[in-house]
Structures
1.
Amino acid sequence: MKISSFLKLVEIQTKAASMIPFMLGTLYALYHYNSFILKNFLLMLVSLLCVDMATTAINNYMDFKKAKTKQGFGYEIHNAISRDNLRESRVIVVIFILLAVATASGIILFLNTSIAVLALGAVSFFVGILYSFGPVPISRTPFGEIFSGFFMGCIIPFIAVYIHVFDRALLSISLNHSMLDISLDIVGTVYILLLTVPAVTGIANIMLANNICDIEEDIENKRYTLPIFIGRNNSLIVFRVLYYAGYLSLAVLLAIRAVPLVSVLTFGTLFIVEKNIRIFYIKQTKKDTFALAVKNFVVVNGALVLTISAALVLKVL
């Protein structure tokens, strides 16, 4: 398989949806807890990137296998298997290699930290597989936005924080004499959950924008996504409201001083986001406007990452 075909199969350009939340959690651990463990950082990076690529490859493979219509809707261009005439056997091998590397890295990370990482990682791993695989993949249901937003936007940053502070009682899970004990730092967890809201809503909107653009194709291929259930107009309203929820959480974070004051600059992205929302309201297509949802996610969460990074630099100086 050519490198270009592999990168198209795993849609490497979409990996920002997992890498930015990962960096957000890492930087928060540095800023709030003053903790960073390089070995754990690298292990999670490898595991996360591989499972993300595997999930995308599975999604493209399942789309290829289940598609009722393989012509029109830009199918010949968007699906790497069809575009590059990839052998199904090679695609399956690539998927299994990615999953094997992700699993091995995840297990080593668990051994370096605690069982909480294993629990959260295992649930995320299986949800990632079920998102694209099985009799009824999550991505083909009205719950795709919820699962993708929560697990990629919230669980990834939480684990990214936890692997650096696993010994500080943020979350502990133990089994004593057949009793399962779970201890959770509620305040610390609430802070992290608020931090992840812009990522959760941004990722959910990437999925939502994708499904809005694909309404006709999804009806043809019997994918019963959220826009099909609630309609295009209601979907567009949800699209706008989710962004506002992200900014509201940022305001709360600043009010309780959970993020540095310089992060107030993130509100400057509102003008860009609002402009992109208006353009998307006018026309919803993969070719012309879907990328606006990705840009909004990168702009908002990238700004948050940059401002926290700037605060860390100033802290050192």
2.
Amino acid sequence: MLGIFLNRKNIILLLMAIELMLLGVNYNFVISSILIDDLSGQIFALLVLTVAAAESAIGLALLMIYYRIRESISIDLIRLLKG
């Protein structure tokens, strides 16, 4: 969470911070699945990994398209797109 709130200038670092949060959730799912001796936590962790991969691919694709149009990936300029 600190990576998102403290670093608001670089969008790539924001995406990396989101990925780290999702990996932490996966770690909790796998460890609790091992402790409970149930396979459902590991299956759910695979589902979260799939969603994280799709999120990063779509986010980077949108970032590349935005960079081609504006020739900058500054978050301050992205905020101008709201209206």
3.
Amino acid sequence: MQKYAYHWLGDNWSWVEYMADSVKNIYEYQLFGLPFMGCDLCGFNGDAAGDLCTRWHQVGTLFPFARNHNQNATTDQEPYVFNFTLPKNVSDNHNITYTDVIRTAIRNRYTLTRYYYSQFWKINEEGGSFFKPLFFDFGEDAEAYKIIEKNMLIGNALKGSVETTNLSKSDGVDFYFP
């Protein structure tokens, strides 16, 4: 299956805990040999608030597979729905909207397209993991085992760091670079 297909985490909820868990769950599927793995950004069940959906798009920028998808019984969560300005505790610039931040995250993802395809081809030919915790490649570094859901390697040449709390609730995190 891993050579020919992708998979997603299933019908998750629009809760910050599900966003944080999605990182660890994608790691687990890497162990099963499924590198093209992802989740429903903003959650499939429940109504996503603007700050959660925005943060989830930022986190999902690095996922191997990402889509904004929800059930019909929930409120719309397309990026344009959140076209209102960020709260003062999130940004000093009162002209930036949640939609602007989501748009930037999506553009960042598109800039990685060639890299992603190259890495997936390499994994197809040689095996390996695409989205992995730091300790996969830096097992001798004790710091690589800390805060694994916020520090990851994407392929063999890109290190990512994500914040898995609501946009308006972030208290800052010390990311680690081995």
4.
Amino acid sequence: MINFPPETTNPTEIISTSNFLNKEEFLKLSKQLKNIPYSEASVIHKDVEEFDLSSRSCKLKWVPFTEDFVWIYDKIASIIHENNSNYYRFNLQESFERIQYTEYNSVTKDHYGWHLDLGANDATSHRKISITIQLSPSNSYEGGILEINKGGITKVPKEKGLITIFPSYLLHRVTPVTKGIRRSLVLWVGGCPLK
């Protein structure tokens, strides 16, 4: 059982903000991402990282902590701290993981089954806030809906440039993409593990 910080104002709030990235930022990001190689998508079960296509299928890239990408890390950090102050008030310790660029393709029916971003191992136990930024126009793909369960299912709008912030202990999934390609950025921010 998770003990929420006593000052937490809304421990299950899902926050979405439109137009987080502008046209110039999309173009800049798209150019920069081309130079990063793809990695295999995996799922962490307890203390073992596994490749499990039944629960997760997608292509991804890891955005490095380099000078070229400082602008996107800073932009995300700013909105996270603002919303953490307004809603969660978690004790964040600037523990940013690398941004994950993710592609879900209809050809392979890519998806990510129900899961939590907060885990029990060292790699994920510190996660407190999860962030998703939609990069694809809503009419460029079908399916691929981010659904978050907080006692009822919330379907996050498929809107290019939308950033969605939610606690890492909320169950969520990406439904199978049935047409086109869904592109997004994903990031986790944490601090001391929740107990």
